[in-house]
Amino acid sequence: MIHLGFLALRLFAFVPFLFRHGFATWMIACAAVIPAGAASAQPLPPGVPEKMPADIPYGTPISLDLARQAVDAAFAEASKRGWKIAIAVVSPSGDLTYFVKMDDTMLASPTIAQNKARTAARFRRDTKGMFDLTETGHSYVMTLDPTLVASPGGIPIISEGKVIGAIGCSGGAGAQDAVVCQAGIEALNRK
Fold this sequence. Notes:
By secondary structure, this protein is of the alpha+beta class. It is built from six helices and four strands, in the order H-H-H-E-E-H-H-E-E-H. The chain folds into two domains: 2-39; 64-189, Beta-Lactamase (2-Layer Sandwich), CATH 3.30.450.150. It is 49% helix and 14% strand. The longest helix has 19 residues, at 2-20. The radius of gyration is 25 Å and the shape is globular.
């Protein structure tokens, strides 16, 4: 009990000290310095882009009906080519909206398809871009998120300039997965 009383006494003694010694003046000075520093931004170092990459706003999550249309088109493309694929559509946050696994699809494919879709939605970019980064020696990409998949076959779904979800496909080679996903995207773009 003695220690708590001492602590309370120290705290009450400290508060008036801040105000006596210009705490409010110090806060006002700090607030004035921040905008002044922001206005005099230094030129960017070479190789640093001026604009944010993949700066696409998130929109209202994709509806079940649109997700089903994308999956149906992707399914038709895979069937036409004789490819056994798992196809997932997710919301912008990466939550599963619609999923189909064709008969005899590789057992790992459902999880991979969902994670490709999650990666495309949450990072607002095609997973082929992540693949390209890792192939050029930027392996740090794989440390960004434990569910990240850096393989072609995950594409964001963009409507009216906003990411409303993503489609992910797995079961074939990455290039085959990307072809199937693109069929789903094109079906939505025709609407």
